[in-house]
Write a structure and sequence with these properties.
Order of helices and strands: EEHEHHHHHHHHHHHEEEHHHHHHHH
Number of helices: 20
Helix content: 40-55%
Oligomer: single chain
Family: Belongs to the 'phage' integrase family.
Pfam family, one: Phage_integrase
Number of domains: 3
Largest sheet: 3 strands, antiparallel
Distance between the termini: 62 Å
CATH architecture of the largest domain: Orthogonal Bundle
Protein name: Site-specific integrase
InterPro entries: DNA_brk_join_enz (IPR011010), DUF6538 (IPR046668), Integrase-like_cat_sf (IPR013762), Integrase_catalytic (IPR002104), Integrase_recombinase_N (IPR010998), Tyrosine_recombinase_XerCD (IPR050090)
Radius of gyration: 25 Å
Shape: globular
Keywords: DNA integration, DNA recombination, DNA-binding
């Protein structure tokens, strides 16, 4: 007997089986909210899970619509009557004008909940949490309306005196005070790190703006401008360093052998490699390819542009990568790695590669930060120097490139188009 439970009207399912939350905004509230329809992907094919995820969004939507109630009542209308009763949260969830402002910690809790519904990784959320905790340490857990340009300046002037990895240190050793860290610091955080702090805080306070808790984001425009080029923030590997890395890698087996080779010959992000399934390695139009996608619950992409189909480099074919994958059981992952909610499958390979890099003394020998991600910079620079178009390099890396024609109306590159670009990546030997 089939499932007879009625699907709530605010749940719809796409032709791909993904559930969406969708609710029509009443006419009286559309101008204030800025939308006629509130629609969010629930990123699941499970109806049960979709109902659970949608419950929070329903409350949030009801709060937004409820805030327009006083204005509508002045016009003599009855706004909530235009919504089905099942679409509305309890009147207790409607924000009452002049109610005490939420404190930053409360706003962060709501922001985290929304971000989790949107599929943002736990690691990203924890990184933002650490910066918000740092802000609270410096100026206090104030009502969200009390954060002004003066409190932002107080935050800026304090964090620029902190040592590198301050947020990590404070998370691991919460008993330490800021004064203790500042007094013992032999060097301070970089401007880039400070700007990353601001970037995280901007997104949290932007959520407060969207929720109409504040009218202006106090962290907007508070980044410190740097004169150096964007591409100098993370350095690419030199040819000599590539040789040193793969001299060591070729002595390894299993994922320690394959993952660095895929990082170099495909310019994949580390977690994109680590979360591959056997079915993601396929033949398309006669070309062996790797499909980077977010199809299973344990697969995550950085953004929508990250989904792509990349031809497998001829050196990987000679090395037997396709045969290796074909030998695996159906439905299995390509690499047997431990999964965590925060890091996905990449934690162990990331630490291992970091130790290898330190063993070879590579980061100290370069101009900037070098890690597994530097393979992507290395390949991007190599393809650029060989005359490959920016759009095709973006297609390889999974970046949005070009103007509206390419990003909005153009489709992803077919494998045969990217095959020539991938083929330009020089052999390691």
């Amino acid at each position: 007997m089939g499932n007879s439970s009625k699907t709530p009207a605010y749940l719809i399912r796409s032709r791909h089986g993904i559930w969406y939350f969708r609710i029509v905004v009443p006419t009286y509230a559309q101008q204030r909210i800025g939308k006629k329809v509130i629609k969010r992907s629930l990123r699941t094919r499970s109806k049960r899970e979709a109902i659970l995820k949608a419950s929070s969004l329903l409350i949030e939507a009801s709060e937004l619509i409820g805030r327009a109630l006083p204005d509508a009542q002045l016009n003599g209308s009855s706004p909530l009557a235009s919504l089905p009763e099942s679409h509305l949260a309890s009147s207790q969830n409607i924000v009452i004008p002049h109610a005490p402002a939420k404190r930053l910690s409360e706003v962060l809790e709501g922001y985290r909940q929304q971000q989790r519904l949107e599929g943002v990784s736990l690691k990203t959320l924890d990184d933002k949490q650490a910066v918000v905790d740092l802000l609270i340490r410096i100026v206090g857990d104030l009502p969200i309306t009390d954060y002004t340009i003066e409190t932002v300046k107080q935050f800026r002037d304090t964090v620029l005196q902190l040592p590198p990895l301050a947020t990590r240190t404070l998370t691991q050793k919460p008993h330490l005070t800021l004064d203790m860290l500042i007094e013992t610091a032999d060097k301070t955080i970089s401007i880039t790190t400070y700007n990353n702090y601001v970037k995280n805080l901007v997104t949290v306070f932007e959520h407060a703006v969207a929720m109409e808790l504040i009218t202006r984001n106090p962290f907007s425009g508070m980044k410190i401008k740097l004169k150096r080029k964007v591409n100098s923030y993370r350095d690419e590997f030199t040819e000599e360093e590539i040789g040193r890395i793969f001299f060591e890698v070729k002595q390894q087996e299993g994922w320690k052998y394959w993952i660095p080779h895929l990082g170099y010959y495909g310019a994949f992000r580390l977690n994109e490699i680590c979360q591959l399934y056997k079915e993601d390695v396929k033949i398309i139009d006669g070309i062996a390819c790797i499909h980077v996608r977010e199809r299973k619950p344990d697969q995550r992409l950085k953004n929508h542009s990250a989904e792509r189909v990349i031809p497998i480099h001829h050196d990987l074919l000679k090395m037997g990568f396709v045969e290796y994958v074909s030998s695996l059981p159906d439905q299995s992952r390509v690499f047997n790695l431990r999964w965590s909610e925060k890091h996905g499958y990449s934690a162990t390979p990331s630490k291992w590669f970091g130790r290898l890099r330190d063993k070879l003394g590579i980061e100290q020998r370069g101009r900037g930060k070098k890690d597994f991600h530097s393979f992507r910079h290395t390949i991007a620079n190599e393809l650029k120097q060989k005359g490959v178009s920016e759009n095709q390099i973006g297609g390889v890396l999974g970046h949005t490139t070009g103007g509206i024609t390419n990003t909005r109306y153009g489709k992803e590159y077919e494998p045969d188009v990217l095959k020539s670009a991938i083929g330009l990546i020089r052999s390691i030997d």
